[in-house]
Amino acid sequence: MILGVLKEPSPETRVSLHPEAVKNLVAAGNKVQIEKGAGEASFLSDELYKEAGAEIHERSAVLESSEMIFQIMPLSESERKGLTEGKFVIGVYQPLVAKELMTEVASQGITLFSMDSIPRITRAQSMDVLSSMSTVAGYKAVLLAASQLPRFFPMLMTAAGTIAPAKVLVIGAGVAGLQAVATAKRLGAVVEAFDTRPSVKEQVESLGGKFVEVPGAVEDKAAGGYAVEQSEEYKKKQSEMLEKSIVKSDVVITTALIPGRKAPILITKGMLQQMKPGAVVVDLAAANGGNCEGTVNEQTVVVEGVTIIGSSTLPSTMPEDATKMYSKNVQNFLKLLLKEDKINLNFEDEIIKGTCITHEGSIVYQPLLK
Ligand code: NAD
């Protein structure tokens, strides 16, 4: 199989395949073509790719002659339209919010795999890009907060007096939230966390955080571990109880998402007014509308004396490790998708089936067919 890796459009700094992955794919009999400079922003030179057995080409040549094309960000409209029927494309397309685009991709006869659709099942953990990129985002969110906060995170006992530790609240204890709890603890903060899924209490506590309890949440096993919409009565109770934690916190990291919906607003203007001046909110739900009133995606704003950092592209700020993790996920997925150097489209496999969005002229992704 001829595999082609493209340079990502700026400001994306990651790249789909690391030289380590290239080495294995070449050893299995594949030809790997890398766009000139594709790894530069991840500190991976063309030389490293050549040593791994890849060929370096101009972008147009990679697009034209590769059977399977890798780019994390969706291809531009003109490049996608230039692809010939039968090509395979692997990237991150958010199919649930891009139905029109998926219809066009299908009509071109392209087989598209969207890595953000890898099923959240145990067997697919090593391919789960949402988890690995959330790990990066949760970690980096705490570092951003620490560098913006006008005070220390840890407790310090110095000749110049005793400094109390910072109080950090993490709202949404999924993959990003749990990484934020762990990172804030390592920096010495006193950490609380809240989630509408009470089953994460144990995980928060095992990382040294205190779980904020709001009784009465509905957890739906059929939602595959994801949060579900709560009743108005619960939301009111949640808001009252969370407010107490929010207003005493120096830092609040928010990651609360409900699949397919706008992110819930959990920090209101009224709560911001009561927070300490200089406090910091890092809103990782910014791209989905944000969990905080006043959040602007990809911007840092000050509202009522509180700095709000809205960010949804934190993995790009740590390209070296983010690329290693993304590439490892893709490499593990390719172990299912390729048999040696041949495509092995086994739709009996729920991971292949769940990740394939378009094939042979149709949308085949179940959530888009409902
Ligand atoms: P996510 O990014 O979809 O959401 C982040 C968190 O926000 C979730 O924990 C969610 O419960 C929480 N949340 C939603 N609304 C909220 C509200 N109003 N208030 C407070 N919290 C709210 O979550 P994620 O990190 O992608 O993880 C989702 C699920 O998938 C988890 O159960 C996780 O354990 C599971 N998971 C499974 C695998 C696997 O088995 N391969 C891998 C990763 C995650």
UniProtKB/TrEMBL annotation:
Keyword annotations: NAD, NADP, Nucleotide-binding, Translocase
Catalytically driven reaction(s): NAD(+) + NADPH + H(+)(in) = NADH + NADP(+) + H(+)(out)
Presence of keyword NADP: yes
SUPFAM superfamilies the record matches: Formate/glycerate dehydrogenase catalytic domain-like, NAD(P)-binding Rossmann-fold domains
EC nos: 7.1.1.1
Ranges for domain Alanine dehydrogenase/pyridine nucleotide transhydrogenase N-terminal: 4-137
Domain spans labelled Alanine dehydrogenase/pyridine nucleotide transhydrogenase NAD(H)-binding: 146-310
Family: Belongs to the AlaDH/PNT family.
Protein name in the entry: proton-translocating NAD(P)(+) transhydrogenase
Organism: Negadavirga shengliensis
